[in-house]
Amino acid sequence: MDAEWLLRSASGAVIALSGIFVITGVVLIRLGMRDHHRLAMLTACALAAVFVVLYAITSTLYPQRTYAGGFRSLYLSVLWSHTALSVINLPLAVVTVYLALKKRFERHRKVAPFTAALWVYVAASGWLVFLFNG
User: Fold this and answer.
1) Which CATH number fits domain 3-132: 3.90.190.20, 1.25.40.10, 1.20.120.80, 3.40.50.300?
2) Using 50, 70 and 90 to split pLDDT, how confident is the model at 89?
3) pLDDT one-digit tens code per residue, 23-79
4) Intra-chain end-to-end CA distance of the chain, in Å
5) In the chain, N or C terminus with fewer CB closer than 10 Å?
6) 7 and 54 Cβ atoms separated by less than 8 Å
7) CB 87 within 8 A of CB 125
8) pTM over 0.85
9) Where are the beta strands (DSSP E) in the chain?
């Protein structure tokens, strides 16, 4: 096990857990468990922040890999959609959390489903990119 693999695996695990907490939060709010929902979503946010730090460290220390597999078109489609949607997801997540913390629940309820769906896609597609690069 080398340090690069360890950092990439840790960041993959953290963002996967973040996505799992988002899904858990969605289930909890549908069950009417607001306090548990809030905790799950704030945990997802904290894990996403840890991911960003790990990703920045990994990207600084190790060069990006060039995909050399047989599914280049599929890989690039996943990579581009992941990258574009992750850039959109960050401010959307900030707005969603801000609205909840300010108790503007009417607006929060409108934007939160889009944020959650996008977040889960970005987390899952990040894993696909990780797996493609083996």
Assistant:
1) 1.20.120.80
2) very high
3) 999 999 999 999 999 999 999 999 999 999 999 999 999 988 788 888 889 999 999
4) 13
5) N
6) yes
7) no
8) yes
9) none
